[in-house]
Amino acid sequence: MFGEGGIGLAERRIRLKVKLLIGIAVSTLVAISLFFVLMFVGNEILDRTVYGFSFMDSMGDKYFNDLQLFVEDEDVSISNLRPLDIWCSRGDRVYLSIYLGDRIVYESVLKSWIKLNPALYDPSLEDEENRHDLVLNDGTVLSAFLYYYSGDAYYYWTIVISGFFSFVAFYMCFISFVHRKLKYIEKLKGELDILAGGDLDYQVCIKGNDELGELANGIEQLRKAVVAHQIAEDKIRAENSELVTALSHDLRTPLTSLLVYLELLDGHKYDSLDQAGYFVKRSLEKTYQIKAMADKLFEYLLVYSSGWELPEMADTDADAFFERYWKEASFSLENKGFHIESFFPPLSCMIRLDAPLMTRAFDNICSNIEKYADPSSPVKISYMREGEMVHLQVENKIGPSSNGPQSTGIGLNTCRRIIGYHKGVFDSFAKDGYFHVSISIPVCGS
Questions:
Q1: 323-333, pLDDT tens digit by residue?
Q2: Do residues 16 and 210 make contact, with C-beta atoms less than 8 angstroms apart?
Q3: Torsion from C-alpha of 67, 70, 74, 75, nearest 10 degrees
């Protein structure tokens, strides 16, 4: 997309959506792992504290001491165990069973006035570590088995706390991933502001191999292209300025000579008609030299000036324009030693053009033939209509004189710009020792 760097990035790119899913998966895995770790640690703590035997034994002793004080305060006797229902109803973490010898006399699950079935209870099945001697007010000593249960509340709180911290871990991991991307987007925005401010030497930071990294690489490649374009424009502008200055300076010499010859002729300061003819001949040479320089200056201005405006164009008969110009051009080239092979079928259409400007483009093509074509090989010139386009083809063998100083290409660039103004297509290339020029111009109404 943007050179080798852009292609390499695209090949190794991991889509941002995939990275987002990976971030969610990793955050979820961290959260689940933390949840199980906290649950394990929490259960271990609970097993050693509220669910441990020592804690339950101490709580059992505490509750029994409270029960003994209650029995003494409420005047509980073997014949009046009903107050025990009040004490047992204070909470659901205590299970109490009381035996008189081997006979069950009270169970906290059932009310005291419900008759118990002794066959269902056996003191030998009770846990001796939870056995206490309960002394009633009438002096009766009963075997009380008091069991303390911590309940599930601590376990539920462990689940809630573990879940809360797991959610926080998920949130922090995911937000950390998103924050890095948002921070990079903010950095890119800041760098774009720097570039928009005119500092094109600032290098864009490229991080990651996702769409954001590709975007940053695209911005960097665009910056480099703009900088290169500006450098090329500055170079062309400097060269153009130097050329105009040089041409302006060079115009003075032939112009001064022309003025001298014309003044001599105007003042009849010559010795003979032959000398006057010599002055006229030299004046014409200087005039042609000035014209050539002016044409070159015009071409430079046409190619490099952005403010040049195209004159108003008019509908023109394609046959009349093409046939008149290229028959005359062929005749002129033949007089200069070139052999022309032409093919000029009827076009039968109208084209919209500026005749002087198009003539200048064709003149540049003919001038190119005169300068660089090999006279020993035929020059092929043809034009024809294909659909809604008129095509001109020119082909010539490149002569040995082309091995000298290289052409500046201004003439061809002038042609390209003129044809472009006419909404046409200009192409030129060298292949296998031959130079090819192709021009396509739309017909009216196409």
A1: 999 999 999 89
A2: yes
A3: 60
Predicted confidence (pLDDT) per residue in 361-398, tens digit: 888 898 889 888 999 999 999 999 999 999 999 999 98
Please give the DSSP secondary-structure letter assigned to residue 75.
T
Cα within 13 Å of Cα(417), Cβ side: 21
* CA atoms of 206 and 187, how far apart (whole Å): 10
* Torsion on CA atoms 113, 118, 124, 129, rounded to nearest 10: -10
pTM of the predicted protein model:
0.42
The token pair at 371 is 């300068």
Residue 335, CA distances (Å) to 212, 326, 330, 376 in order: 66, 14, 9, 14
For 26, how many CA atoms within 13 A lie in the half-sphere containing its CB? 13
- CB burial of residue 124 (10 Å; 0-12, 13-18, 19+): exposed
Radius of gyration from C-alpha coordinates of the chain: 53
Q: Answer yes or no: are the C-beta atoms of 436 and 365 closer than 8 Å.
A: no
CA-to-CA dists, residue 210 to 1, 6, 18, 176, 180, angstroms: 14, 12, 9, 17, 13
Distance CA(22)–CA(160), nearest Å, equals 27
- Determine the Cα–Cα distance for residues 278 and 264; give it in Å rounded to an integer: 11
**In this predicted model, which residue has the larger pLDDT, 310 or 410?**
410
Q: Are the C-beta atoms of residues 213 and 9 closer than 8 Å to each other?
A: yes
Helix (H, G, I), strand (E, B) or coil at 273: helix
10 Å Cβ neighbour count for 441? 22
Q: How far is CA 185 from the centre of its chain?
A: 11
Edge-first strand listing for the sheet containing 141-148: 103-107, 94-100, 141-148, 131-135
Sheet holding 425-431, edge to edge: 340-343, 379-386, 389-397, 434-442, 425-431
Do the Cβ atoms of 123 and 165 come closer than 8 Å?
no
Q: How far is CA 383 from CA 22, 319, 369, 391, 396, in A?
A: 64, 10, 17, 5, 15
Q: For the beta carbon of residue 333, count every other beta carbon within 10 angstroms.
A: 20
User: Do residues 377 and 395 lie in contact, with contact meaning Cβ atoms separated by under 8 Å?
Assistant: no
Quick one: CATH architecture of 314-442?
2-Layer Sandwich (3.30)
34 near 169, Cβ under 8 Å?
yes
- Residue 145 structure tokens: 């088995």
Give the contacts of 342 (CB within 8 A, at least 6 positions apart): 326, 330, 380, 381, 382
Convert the pLDDT of each residue in 150-187 to its tens digit: 767 778 888 999 999 999 999 898 888 888 878 878 88
